[in-house]
Amino acid sequence: MIPEVGHFALILALGVTLVQGTLPLVGAARGIPEWTAIAVPAARAQLLFVVIAYGCLTYAFITNDFSVAYVAQNSNTAQPLVYQISGVWGAHEGSLLLWALFLAVWTVAVTVFSRVLPVTYTARVVAVLGLVSVGFYLFMLATSNPFDRLLPAPAEGRELNPLLQDPGLAIHPPMLYLGYVGLSVPFAFAIAALLDGRLDAAWVRWTRPWTVIAWVFLTLGIALGSWWAYYELGWGGWWFWDPVENASFMPWLVATALIHSLAVTEKRGAFKAWTVLLSIFAFSMSLLGTFLVRSGVLVSVHAFATDPARGLFILIFLGLVVGGSLMLYAWRAGTVSGGGSFELFSRETLLLVNNVLLVGAAAAILIGTLYPLFLDALNLGKISVGPPYFDPVFILLMLPLMLAMGVGILARWRKDRLEAYWQRFPLPKHLLAVVMLALLLVTALVMLWLMVHIVKIAPPAPTTLMVTVGMAMVAWITFTSLVAILDRLKKKANPWKAVLGLPRGFFGMTFAHVGVAVFTVGVTLTTAYSVEKDLRMSPGDVFPLADYSFRFEGVGPAQGPNYRAQRGTVRVFRDDSEVTVLYPEKRFYSSQPNNAMTEAAINAGLTRDLYVSLGEPIPGTADWSVRLYHKPFVQWIWLGCVFMGIGGILAATDRRYRMASKVKRDSAAATTGPAPALESKA
Amino acid sequence: MTARYLVPLAIFVVLLGFLAVGLKLDPREVPSPLIDRNAPAFDLPSVRDPERTVGLADLRQEQVSLFNVWASWCVSCRHEHPLLVELSRRNVVPIYGLNYKDTRSDAVRWLDRLGDPYRASAFDADGRVGIDWGVYGVPETFVVDRKGVIRHKHTGPISVKDWEDKLLPIIRRLQAEKG
Predict the structure, then answer these.
(1) Under an 8 A CB cutoff, do B25 and A291 touch?
(2) Has residue B17 been placed in a domain?
(3) CA atoms of A462 and A590, how far apart (whole Å)
(4) ipTM of the complex
(5) In B, residues 120-179, which contact A (CB 8 Å cutoff)?
(6) Is residue B65 part of a domain?
(7) Chain B contacts of A295, Cβ < 8 Å?
(8) Which one of A25, A207, A309, A516 has the fewest beta carbons within 10 angstroms of its own beta carbon?
């Protein structure tokens, strides 16, 4: 009964979104106030219905209703409650429902926070979001209904993919989806602006916090996924350039570019058409990512069930949404272009460099991800593109980006002079050179210390060169970020007090940029100085790695709620005192008793991780193959992402966004009568 | 409307075309580098009778044979198994097995319970022969001709459709070949 209620609610949600996606658009175009006014209540009704549907599916999971096929495939009675709840989005159908739920939440959020925008404008935004929702409901009802019955009902369900039974991965998809779906808001704003034929600073100001929040979710979602891969897959790696990872990374890169181009459009009125195009790109990348993950056109370590019928549906949807938007863009972009001019050396130019490099990186990753598909489609054979392509291309694009970042945060809008630029550093020019050299020297010494003292190996020359360049960028970004703060305080009477008075958006930017530096430290040092060893170990064996020694104590059985495990014990010593005891596991979930899940044991630290994972038992002995890793500074990778996330939150909550809405609302309340009715151009 | 605003649309249409073609292709269909090469030689004890050995020589006695990699722990093999049993009952083509990373008792129990379609199964406990043959998942099936050359490789369980569309035509052709 309950699943039918959910199914029915889903159908009702489709009906409501059809109204939400069409009538307001017509109303806004023809000037029919009754039709535009339906946007907001329709969006709220849609949220109500999708919440009901989502609640019904969750209820089916919690009550172990295995007559629902989706529940039977992804849950069983032994599964802990947390994973019964997270099981709702553990596979295809439920993920879509979560997508739709988030989209409805964002839409209603737009209706709540955008009350001060012109009514026709809000109506158009809500309608565009509604049309996107229509696609998702149709997709669910036509090819992937989470409420399909399985009769007769099995007595026991299968189980949620054991890889997904992990707190990190339980919250990773919702984070990512919030990011993906969040990008639909700037997309809808852009489409509405194209329809409206007007793009002013107010539009951009409204889009910025939405974009930044979506970007924060994407950042954290990707970081969580990478962190999960690091400790769950047992290979010690944190990024594999897998198609599914790339699918989440491409929208991130475009969204990062969008954040920066929005800054230019808001402050200087330039890049208008480009900003609109980026908004379309960012959301298109989210949809394309969904297509790649769900259609099975590419081989991925993420073994999702795939289905060509679903692939075809998403492809048509993608074609309609992206093709339609780009057609609209081709038709109307001329009306929104134009704006402030700027000179060669200016902040605008540097942000343009930023945009070109970020979009270039996204394009390079897109090409690398789709290249095997292109070749296959042209019958030129099957190949796979991996880190040998992605690593150098990405690094080569990121180095100039980091260089430009340091220059950009100190450069002035519109027109700057090199002479004046150097004067912003609180040091005379020759001293500046000394400071830079000193920074490089310190970096070099730290590296030398790491090599000789900790890693005890001499890495080849290219590695040393890579580390030098990487750390020089870190020093450059950190240094210029500090100088930018000092620059802002220069003419203040009381600098200490003035620090607190700086806008939150500025702190956000600084945090995010320092996050890039922290991230770079992690990537550079981990890549260059990680050591790993694959060993056969007998109980009692000791192996020295870096400046630690690992003693293997043997493997014994252990029992979990829905799995049994082989649990190893590895004691780690340093200078004869015990540092930690690690318990790596091989888990056998009752649903897949022949498929062992590796649960690596990690002792994490700010300067190094000790990482142990169990390989295979050696038959006939108590020996096991064991993998030992020493990974310096690896946690900085995720720490950097957290910094970026905090930066984003600070920027999105900047006072001027809140002020703007408060002032306008007050003035709107002061003028009697209905809120600014139909102030659009007729 | 300026031409340059049309560029993104044009690029997207090309991309869409490729995606549409890609949808029809199966990325999991990976050709083996061993196709049309001599099959790697091996000599292993038989699953049922440790005294007897099974090797490439056995496969070369046949005009054409299937070499099927299986294991008792492999769920997909269980799906594929009835088809193999049916083929051997109808005597379409001789089938040899490679019992991959299994235990002898489990393997024998599986054959006794589900039927034994194999002329003989080689017992590859440590998976060494599997590595030589480039096996990266179970089940996999190779078509080997009388010269001991691998002519086709199928990854994953053989469905009825796979059998009729892909494997059977190749086998018919090879059976007709004179050598």
Answers:
(1) no
(2) no
(3) 48
(4) 0.71
(5) 125
(6) yes
(7) 23
(8) A309
